[in-house]
């Protein structure tokens, strides 16, 4: 982060405790404040959706812990006096407020003029943690080592061959695979849609059905979209006009297709519980026949998936049956309880027998049925 000015010392740090932003990842606001105050910022790095500072205590050797940040959905670093992006548009008066609304921590340098930076997160999806390790080991420590390679800084790892092996070993919709941070770091929802549109691939097509040529094109698109966004410092006003990003957040709240400048229609689908923008005329869900080697991979993956899923599905089925049976029994018990105790069930109504002008209704009694007819008298 060049705005923080590497080489400057953090003279003051304010970090009120927050059980979510700090506490969810095993630290606290006061612990962060204590660890950062007096530290010199040597460098700033990132991997995927995480970034961190490498800090040094003045005149002393490299000193952990190091702060690692995840901005979440609505977080950002705001520099005082500098234009910044926002989760939602702000009024000009709010822009001038300091500290900004929803700030979670504030850093101040000892330089003149001093630099002030704040971490702002309205919905508190961001996370701030402290890693007690050497700076060079940060990427080999949780949570960084749980994530896949970064498309911008790990091009030597994320090769077309590596990607093909990963893709063909899974049997899931390609968008779900790309969103998995354990596979590739940093691909979020809109980035993945942009990548698939650029590669002319449908988000619902299963990963193990792609040809080698399709995977090579996908690899090129991943590198192109990610590198372009980074080179432009994520300034969306400078993104290429043909990118879906410029049109996916239209004013229309209906499900009607959105017409792009080139005349193509963009629709929205739900893939893996995420809203996906797709251009059907460009992205077609065509399953190409895999080679014999791929067939073996697919069969193996399906067998493994079926073994994993068979047991839970059976249990789920049993649970559903148990719930139904329980509900039926409960209903029967309720019906039984509604009936008056000690009385027999109501018998079918019987016809009335007329004897002269007297009407006698036949009623059932326990045991043998008796006649209630009035005997005729002899005249």
From TrEMBL:
SMART domains, sorted: Fapy_DNA_glyco, H2TH
Region span, Disordered: 291-379
Boundaries of every Formamidopyrimidine-DNA glycosylase catalytic domain copy: 1-126
Keyword Chloroplast: no
Assigned keywords, A-Z: DNA damage, DNA repair, DNA-binding, Glycosidase, Hydrolase, Lyase, Multifunctional enzyme
Listed SUPFAM superfamilies: N-terminal domain of MutM-like DNA repair proteins, S13-like H2TH domain
GO molecular function: damaged DNA binding; DNA-(apurinic or apyrimidinic site) endonuclease activity; lyase activity; oxidized purine nucleobase lesion DNA N-glycosylase activity; zinc ion binding
One Pfam assignment: H2TH
One Gene Ontology term from the biological process aspect of the record: base-excision repair
Highest rank taxon of the organism: Eukaryota
InterPro entries attached to this UniProt entry: FPG_cat, FPG_N, H2TH_FPG, Ribosomal_uS13-like_H2TH
GO CC, any one term: nucleus
Residue ranges the record marks as coiled coil: none
Reactions that this protein is recorded to catalyse: Hydrolysis of DNA containing ring-opened 7-methylguanine residues, releasing 2,6-diamino-4-hydroxy-5-(N-methyl)formamidopyrimidine
Keyword Amino-acid biosynthesis among record annotations: no
Biased composition (Basic residues): 343-355, 367-379
Family under the similarity heading: Belongs to the FPG family.
Name the record gives this protein: Formamidopyrimidine-DNA glycosylase
Organism of origin: Lachnellula cervina
């Amino acid at each position: 982060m060049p705005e923080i000015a590497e080489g400057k010392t953090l003279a003051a740090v304010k970090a009120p405790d927050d059980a979510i932003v700090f506490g969810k990842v095993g630290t606290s606001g006061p612990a962060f404040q204590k660890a950062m105050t007096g530290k010199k910022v040597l460098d700033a790095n990132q991997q995927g959706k995480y970034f961190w500072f490498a800090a040094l205590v003045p005149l002393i050797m490299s000193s952990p812990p190091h702060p690692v940040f995840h901005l979440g959905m609505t977080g950002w670093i705001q520099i005082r006096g500098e234009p910044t992006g926002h989760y939602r548009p702000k009024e000009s008066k709010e822009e001038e407020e300091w500290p900004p609304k929803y700030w979670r921590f504030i850093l101040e340098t000892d330089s003149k003029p001093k630099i002030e930076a704040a971490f702002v997160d309205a919905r508190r999806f961001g996370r701030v943690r402290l890693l007690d390790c050497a700076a060079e080991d940060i990427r080999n420590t949780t949570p960084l080592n749980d994530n896949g390679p970064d498309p911008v800084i790990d091009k030597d790892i994320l090769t077309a061959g590596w990607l093909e092996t990963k893709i063909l070993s899974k049997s899931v919709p390609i968008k779900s695979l790309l969103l998995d941070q354990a596979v590739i770091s940093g691909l979020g929802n809109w980035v993945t849609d942009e990548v698939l549109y650029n590669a002319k691939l449908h988000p619902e097509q299963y990963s193990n059905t792609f040809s080698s040529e399709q995977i090579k094109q996908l690899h090129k698109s991943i590198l192109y979209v990610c590198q372009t966004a980074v080179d432009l410092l994520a300034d969306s006003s400078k993104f290429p006009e043909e990118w879906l990003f410029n049109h996916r957040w239209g004013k229309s709240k209906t499900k009607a297709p959105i017409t792009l400048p080139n005349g193509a229609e963009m629709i929205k689908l739900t893939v893996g519980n995420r809203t996906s923008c797709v251009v059907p005329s460009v992205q077609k869900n065509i399953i190409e026949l895999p080679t014999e080697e791929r067939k073996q991979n697919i069969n193996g993956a399906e067998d493994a998936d079926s073994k994993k899923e068979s047991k839970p599905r059976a249990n789920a089925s049993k649970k559903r049956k148990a719930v139904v049976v329980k509900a039926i029994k409960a209903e029967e018990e309720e019906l039984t309880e509604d009936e008056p105790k000690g009385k027999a069930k109501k018998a079918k109504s019987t016809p009335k027998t007329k004897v002269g002008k007297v009407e006698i209704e036949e009623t059932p009694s326990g045991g043998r049925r008796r006649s209630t007819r009035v005997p005729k008298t002899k005249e």
